[in-house]
Amino acid sequence: MARPFSRPFSSILTRLEKNADNYFVSKIPPIFILGYSFTIEVGDRIPLTADGMGKCDTYVQKIWINKNLHPQQIRSTLLHEILEAISGNLNLDLTEAQIRGIEVGLNSVTPAILEKSWEEKIL
Length: 123
What we know:
five-stranded mixed beta sheet; 123 residues; 5 helices; 24% strand; Zincin-like
């Protein structure tokens, strides 16, 4: 099973290529959310969203992230979209405010525990 966040975002952002629509994108290896494989695309065009930061589509199992965000915003947006996928797949019907609150809370502690070096220290 693929490990989410197994590579630093800086390496992801430097792997830009052009997709079929001629937009620059960075393909990240798929991550598994509740057993479903989601592709992640960091690029300069994402489907219509209210904030233009990211979008999750649980039907096509894809997450889009705006590459023009600061790396910390990319991490936070990816976490937000993962929470959207969880809410959608489990029919939790979480509001945007609830998802944003969980995102902010988790993002304040998560970056340190997602580092492989941290994991190796406790295992």
